[in-house]
Design a protein that fits this description.
Number of strands: 18
Radius of gyration: 21 Å
Order of helices and strands: HEHEEHHEEEEHEEEEEHEEEEHHEEHHHH
Largest sheet: 7 strands, mixed
Strand content: 25-35%
Distance between the termini: 44 Å
Strand order of the largest sheet: 6-5-14-15-16-13-17
Shape: globular
Number of helices: 12
């Protein structure tokens, strides 16, 4: 699209998470009029650490925000997968992207703060819970709780795994339970009993459990994550210290000690969900990005990276195509094959049907889904 057309484009982004904030940055650099509408009254990202891959960091370099992100990260050279007792299974360098070879490990809270911090003041509007989206073909109307309406030439649905935009326009299929729970905490390096000595990610695997140690050396901390089989599909399940200790039985005694020392009030507990691939991500004036389009399990560590890549690809498509309609089709054609495969791989080995092959005898009894 011509620069003059892009500057006349009014874009409304629903959701101020990774995908929404990244899309806001990428699309505003085109010169478009961008506003972000977030349902929360305060943006607070809970959980722990993630890894920003080399391709993602290169997007930040392209957008002129590399330093703002990198200064709150720990650059990592490789990752390791080990048995429960620490015997090596594999060790690989991160997939390079050009000259960028490091994956940058970052706390989720620092990441969203850094992303929002590079957006113009007044672009993000808090306290806007989307109720309906009306697609009129050449534009759309958003209606928020309280009655406020917003019209836009392009609506970007970045409203997560329970996306209202996706549910009303593209797919009414809900999230899919993985049969796992994730327990996440941020602890000090000193609390790892000497297990963290560099800036590289390590995952210990065994008996249906995966334990991640993700260094956040710039903070003097470590993201300590346990992913374990559990048939309870409650979104925010209640667990005890004894429950966590059972998941790491037989692991390296230092990992058991870390778990025993956890303050349960600081542990983020979630049932793990993704969504099935969505056939269509866009209409002529509405498009999905990030988890709204392709929420995936965290086993490949690609959820946040995919959202950033979506934002970059959407901006690229708007720049290259002749119209918004053509741009959205180009964006989907570019990104959907990639994320379909990531969704598949992220489920591989961890789905209920496959779990016996990966962890013999560890498949849990299924229970009925609960909200």
């Amino acid at each position: 699209m011509q620069t003059s057309e892009l500057k006349n484009l009014k874009i409304a982004i629903v959701g101020a998470g990774y995908g929404g904030a990244a899309a806001a940055k990428a699309l505003s650099l085109l010169g478009a009029d961008v506003d972000v509408y977030e349902q929360a009254n305060q943006i607070r990202e809970v959980g722990a650490g993630i890894g920003l891959r080399p391709a993602t960091m290169n997007r930040f370099r392209q957008w002129g925000i590399f330093d703002a992100i990198a200064k709150v990260t720990s650059p990592s050279e490789y990752f390791e997968i080990l048995t429960a007792t620490g015997d090596p299974i594999m060790k690989e360098t991160w997939p390079a992207d050009g000259e960028q070879t490091h994956t940058h490990l970052i706390h989720r809270g620092d990441f969203i703060d850094a992303l929002l911090g590079v957006l113009p003041e007044g672009m993000v509007h808090l306290g806007h819970k989307l109720e309906t989206v009306q697609d009129k073909g050449d534009g759309s109307v958003l209606t928020f709780a309280g009655g406020r309406t917003v019209e836009a030439d392009l609506v970007v649905g970045a409203d997560g795994i329970k996306s209202v935009v996706r549910g009303q326009l593209f797919s009414d299929q809900g999230p899919v339970f993985s049969g796992e729970h994730a327990y996440r905490a941020v602890i000090s390096v000193d609390a790892t009993h000497g297990m963290v000595v560099d800036d590289n990610l390590r995952m210990y695997i065994g008996r249906g459990t995966k334990v991640y140690l993700l260094p956040l050396r710039h903070r003097g901390q470590v993201s300590f994550d346990i992913t374990a089989l559990c048939p309870d599909s409650t979104w925010n399940p209640q667990v005890t210290k004894d429950d966590l200790l059972k998941t790491v039985e037989g692991f390296d005694e230092r990992l058991v000690r870390i778990t025993r020392d956890l303050d349960m009030d600081t542990v983020n507990v979630r049932a793990v969900y993704d969504i099935d691939p969505v056939d269509t991500w866009h209409s002529d004036s509405v498009v999905l990005v990030g988890d709204a389009a392709h929420s995936m399990l965290h086993h490949q560590g690609q959820g946040a990276n995919s959202a950033i890549e979506d934002a970059g690809a959407l901006a690229d498509a708007l720049r290259e195509a002749a119209s918004v309609k053509e741009a959205l089709a180009l964006y989907q054609a570019t990104r959907k094959p990639v994320t379909d495969e990531l969704q598949r791989i992220s489920r591989q080995g961890w789905s209920e049907d496959e779990i016996d092959e990966v962890f013999p005898g560890q498949k849990p009894a299924a229970t009925a889904p609960k909200e």
